Amino acid sequence: MANQTVRKKSFWEQYKLPILLLGGIAVGSIIGVVSPSLGQTLKPLGEIFLNLLFTIVVPLVFVSIASAVGSMLNMKRLGKILGSTILVFLVTGAIAGVCVLCWVNLFSPSAGTNIQMGQAEMGEMQSASEMLVNSLTVSDFPELLSRQNMLPLIIFAILFGFCVSACGGDESPVGKLLGNLNQVIMKFVDLIMKIAPIGLGAYFANLIGEFGPELLGDYGRSMVVYYPLCLLYVLIFFPLYALFAGGKTGVKKMLKNIFAPAVTAFATQSSVATLPVNKEACDNIGVPKDVSDLVLPLGATAHMDGSVLSSIVKIAFLFGVFGMPFTGVDTYAMAIVVAVMSAFVLSGAPGGGLVGEMLIVSLFGFPAEAFPLIATLGFLFDPAATCLNASGDTLASMMVARLVEGKDWLKNAAARKAEGEQA
Q1: Tens-digit pLDDT profile for the chain (423 aa)?
Q2: Is the distance from CB of 170 to CB of 176 less than 8 angstroms?
Q3: Contact between residue 297 and residue 150 where contact means Cβ atoms under 8 Å apart
Q4: Sign of CA dihedral 277, 97, 87, 169
Q5: Neighbouring C-beta atoms of residue 130, cutoff 10 Å
Q6: Is 54 within 8 Å of 147 (Cβ atoms)?
Q7: Do 65 and 291 form a contact (C-beta atoms < 8 A)?
Q8: Backbone phi and psi for residue 388, each to the nearest 5 degrees, phi listed first
């Protein structure tokens, strides 16, 4: 009986956060269905929680990256981490692209759809060079302090970390300050997550109360195609990624820790807002701190498997609606390139895919009437897409740890943890 009590306590400690998050979302959803007006009244509570998460993201990203790079006197290791990160992002993105192309050819997302065309004005598209400059840099320092400019912030933090490393590393005054700031920020994150079940519940109550009827319309077929695809991707490829990263132990670690980031991302619809939860998951798994501090912020900006899946489903949907055949190697290659580009453009903001959707409409030459169609799909797909994006960042961190430290990295992490507990 005593052993059974221990097991129950252990299960609750391990899964307390995702259980509470799911409970909050469930209660909020029920409120939104039963009383939509009450659900919309709770909107401020959800927005307060989301704003708290967003306000901590910029300092979290800057301090964690600058601290990790600044304390890394071994520049060869840093290069290996960054190179492995890019490789993992490209490989998983390509796998996602091939999977969704096969899927939409089996199950058309536009079959049986009868949609009246709306009118929408297209925004002015940037040139490729302008898009590159604006994606990588900003024109003034204050613009770095915005979550809308995550990639320039990451680049700035890496360069800042290089300079800290060159001027004494983590033993320098600035290095020590960054280390202490990192601890303070993680404590702040802990405080925010204590109100997460209430905040997510209120946020979901408003979503269901305000947009619930739109889930049952002409877009139902595309959702029936997209959501099972996401589920299959998670059930098939997530365990394979974890198996590569850490064998059977890696799969067990993934299953124990993936739910909190997945639930948070599904509810907030933001990879950036999920960063603090992802960081905690990676720490629990045993991912080296310098790996997770670099991979997770980069992943929130550039690792977008779920968005690649959703973008290609949107493209196939538009091809069907406008009576165009979605076939041919050229079309498929273009779809993957546009999907990756649009996913990159829309990263970081909740439901903020409008620019990426303009990119899809523009590059494929669809008429302006296509924009409101996929803008609606973007809203409906965003929870599942962000869930895959953010939870995939945890797996990407595990795979990068495997590539950087070798196949025994989980054993080494467990040994380091045991030594720390003994000390």
Answers
A1: 444 443 444 566 656 767 787 788 788 888 888 888 888 898 898 888 878 877 887 888 788 788 878 877 667 888 899 899 989 988 998 899 889 999 988 888 876 655 544 443 434 444 556 656 666 788 888 888 887 777 788 789 889 988 998 888 878 899 899 989 988 887 887 788 788 889 878 877 887 777 665 554 556 778 888 999 999 999 999 999 999 999 999 999 999 899 889 988 888 777 877 888 898 899 999 999 889 988 998 888 777 788 889 889 888 888 887 778 888 887 888 788 777 766 654 454 444 455 566 667 766 777 766 766 776 677 778 888 889 988 999 999 999 999 998 888 888 887 777 666 555
A2: yes
A3: yes
A4: negative
A5: 10
A6: yes
A7: no
A8: -65, -40
For the record, the structure tokens of 329 come out as 């190697």
- 82 Rama sector, left if φ>0, alpha if ψ -120 to 50, beta otherwise: alpha
- Sort residue 406 into left (φ over 0), alpha (ψ -120 to 50) or beta: left
Q: Can you read off the two tokens belonging to residue 295? A: 């991979």
How far apart CA 75 and CA 265 sit, in angstroms, is 33
Residue 1 identity: M
Q: Report how far residue 339's alpha carbon sits from residue 33's, in angstroms, rounded to the nearest whole number.
A: 34
Q: Which two tokens stand for residue 384?
A: 């599942």
